[in-house]
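User: Hey, quick favor. My workstation is busy. Could you predict this chain's structure for me?
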Amino acid sequence: MKPTRPFPERARARRRALQALYQWQIGGGPMRRIIEQFNEEQDMAIADGAYFSELLLGVEAQLAQIDGAIAPCADRGIDEIDAIERATLRLATFELLHRLDIPYKVVINEAIELARDFGAEGGHGYVNAVLDRVARNARTAETR
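Assistant: No problem, here it is.
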C-alpha cells in the first residue's frame, strides 16, 4: 500500500497549479484569468485554493528570478526543457526560494511525484537532479 502523503490539499494544489502553469506557458494570458478559469472548471474544493493561487501568482511575479535560479543548474536553456518539466521546475523553485517554511526535501519529493505523474518517461530524474542543485544554491544551510 502506498503511504498517504501529508497535506493532501496542498499536494492537490500543486497538481492543479502544474496544470495551470502548463496552460499559461503554452497559451499565455494573465495568470489571474487562468486561476479564475480553474476555479470555475475544476474541483478546487479538494485543493488548498489559497496555496494554488499563491504558487501561480508567485511564479508569474518572480519568473525572472526563478528562471535565473534554474539556468545554472540545468544542462540546457529553460525554453529547451520539456514544458511539463519546466512548469514543475518553476513551481518547485518558487517554493525553494520563497517558501522557506517548507523543507527542501518535501519540495523536491512533491516535484518528483508531479513529474512522474505528468511528465515524460524519466523526466522525474531530470527534475530531481536540477532541483537538487537549485536547493544547494538556494538553501545552503539546510542542505549541508
